[in-house]
Amino acid sequence: MALPSSPSDAAAPDAERLLGLYATMQRIRVFETLADEAHKAGQVAGYIHLSIGQEAIAAAVGANLREDDVLTSTHRGHGHTIAKGADPLAMFRELCGRAGGTCGGKGGSMHIADFSVGMLGANGVVAAGLPIAVGAAHAIALKGEDRIAVCFFGDGATNRGPFLEALNWAAAFRLPVLFVCEDNGYGATTRTGSVSAGGGPGVRAESLGIPVTVVDGNDLAAVDAAAAALVRIVRGGGGPQFLHARTYRFRGHTSSDPAAYRDPAEVQAQLDTNDPIRRAAATLAGLGVTPDALERVERHERETLAAALAAALDSPWPDLRTAFTDVQDIGAPQ
Ligand SMILES: Cc1ncc(C[n+]2csc(CCOP(=O)(O)OP(=O)(O)O)c2C)c(N)n1
């Protein structure tokens, strides 16, 4: 899948570029809506974590990366992986445990990796992606390359030790890494603010000398402009940067979580006023894009992804012998 074309950080949003990013957001939302249905139908095993409501961050950051840049993600990683250019058919196969999945069907939703597009891995361990991204950035720096590493993590992850360890190392060695905190206000069922001391993720990053940019993570054009500027600094040797993107997750923590810990009025207010896709559609309408053009984009994604899911469900199961390939430490079958 082609990534949207050349990054732009011009002050005025460009309709054609934003429409490309809008298509990525729709691809993510449709992918996850179908994945949710497949999970509820018993076609996807295990837990799946949806990023519905957070699509603008993945789409806009992803569009500012080159294919050879690398990325680490969280347990909520479908959107980041799609935005980095992974093939949705291979991702559906992965979710459904089939041959031809990005990890041969052995990783599943929480462990999707696709090295062919620089996606080093989603990760079921909160904050574990941070040191991996920094390690990758250190390797890039040692080789003198101009690639960068991007690390997505949640606000909950900033309360874990690897956050400090990773930011400290990145700052000490001025590594080419962009930290992207997707602050959706919750860590599983806990309001993050109720268990976090101090002034929040940005204050912690700044205390280590890493510059922080705060952005409305549900404003597609704003995230695009911020990401373009930060990627340029990181790629140009300016050292690590931190993007604090405020957002909201519309669904429960997992597909099986009814989110009874949240006031329904809070969720409804967010749905009514802060859906990043509806906000992007309104921006595009203001730039002269017709409702028909927006509908065509959405229909294309719905049709393409429905066909991809059907093809994934029609794919064979992995050969039993592949259970022993790509597995560390246990050696080959005797
Ligand atoms: C080390 C570790 N501790 C606890 C968990 C259980 N857990 C899974 S997701 C999650 C919340 C993470 O919140 P955040 O980092 O804000 O990401 P979000 O789910 O909001 O995207 C927790 C506590 C885990 N997977 N790993």
What is the makeup of the main sheet? 6 strands, parallel
- Which ions, cofactors or small ligands are bound in this entry? thiamine diphosphate
Radius of gyration, rounded?
19 Å
Shape: globular
Element order, helices and strands?
A: HHEHHEHEHEEEHEHEHHH
Taking strands numbered 1, 2, ... along the chain, how are they ordered across the largest sheet? 2-1-3-4-8-7
Low-confidence stretches: 1-10
Instruction: Give the quaternary arrangement of the chains.
Output: single chain
Count of individual helical segments = 11
Please state roughly what percent of the residues sit in beta strands, choosing from under 5%, 5-15%, 15-25%, 25-35%, 35-45% or over 45%.
Answer: 5-15%
Query: Helical residue percent?
Result: 40-55%
Strand segment tally: 8
Distance between the termini: 39 Å
* Average pLDDT taken over every residue: 95
Structural category is alpha/beta
Written description of the protein model:
- Helices cover 43% and strands 10% of the residues.
- A hairpin with a 2-residue loop joins strand 5 (186-187) and strand 6.
- It has helices at residues 15-40, 55-63, 78-83, 88-95, 129-143, 161-172, 201-207, 220-235, 264-273, 276-286, 291-313; strands spanning 70-72, 119-121, 149-154, 177-183, 186-187, 190-191, 212-216, 241-246.
- The protein contains eleven helices and eight strands.
- It is α/β, with parallel strands linked by helices and 334 residues long.
- Residues 1-10 have low confidence and may be disordered.
- The strands form two sheets. The chain has a six-stranded parallel beta sheet with strand order 2-1-3-4-8-7, with helices on both faces. A two-stranded antiparallel sheet has the order 5-6.
